[in-house]
Amino acid sequence: MPLKKFSQDQGDLIKEYYNSYGYVVVENLLSPAKIQTFLNAYEKVKHSRAFVFFSQDTHLPTQPKLTPEGFIENSMLYPADLKFWRSFSQSLEECLVDESVIDALSRLTGASDHIMMQNMFFDRSTGTVEHQDHYYLDSNPPGKMVAAWYALEDIHKDAGCFFVLPGSHKGKVIERSSGANFSDHDSFVKAINTLINEGGYEYRSFPLKRGDVLFWHPYTIHGAFNNTDPRYSRKSLTAHYYPSHLKPLYSKDEASKPPKLRKSANPHVQILKSGFGPYVSNAMLYLKAIVNYVRRRGPDYDMRRNSYT
Q: Which structural domain range is residue 110 located in?
């Protein structure tokens, strides 16, 4: 089946397709100028020996490890919070809350204002295991969160493409207990594979063009293939949003107090964490990196496909 894309002005069709298949692609949504500004900032920080980030695939603080082709091996979790590296984090945030992207998001949620729960950056595909976002994060009530994947370059089919399993959002949802306990992650991965086998879902990969944005439902099973040609990077961003009148699922303080938020470059988007919080978390990365090095501490859980083969 050929890859279906929509233009930004096809609002009703975008919503209809998303409801039917659990994902939708809107083409040429993110401006080339914003993409280039971010990539220029990224090229400056990735060679710095002082640059430390939290790896999304291993869930450990790490320094950039470059492949022979010059791509960072690990993905970044919460790169918009790296406030010690202002040009990098600010240009990344400008992409994540781009007005055209948030307008398309509003088409899907019906809300004008949103809260960003999480963000990620990928240079080289790490190969992500199949999963449903709901297990890790979601809105409360569940199912109202929407995730977005931004292609920052033309994605080659051998670069380790992002994939989804269309229609899987209408099947069973794997739950976890509230709180931050991921001790059952291996069981979750096995349960997802069982769902795939039972549902007979197809895999649809996305060699998207620069500026295209893919949106998907928190129940939709998705992941990323391994890179099969090291010459190709897969520069892309990911973020998760929920309507601002809702609350985040699994929040420890959900019943007692509202979540801490900070403003973004877009007045219609706030980001989880207080205004000073990103500076604290950025500083803590360096402390955690030292502690982990001394203790030889491993990851709490692993998102890499190769870890489950």
A: 11-308
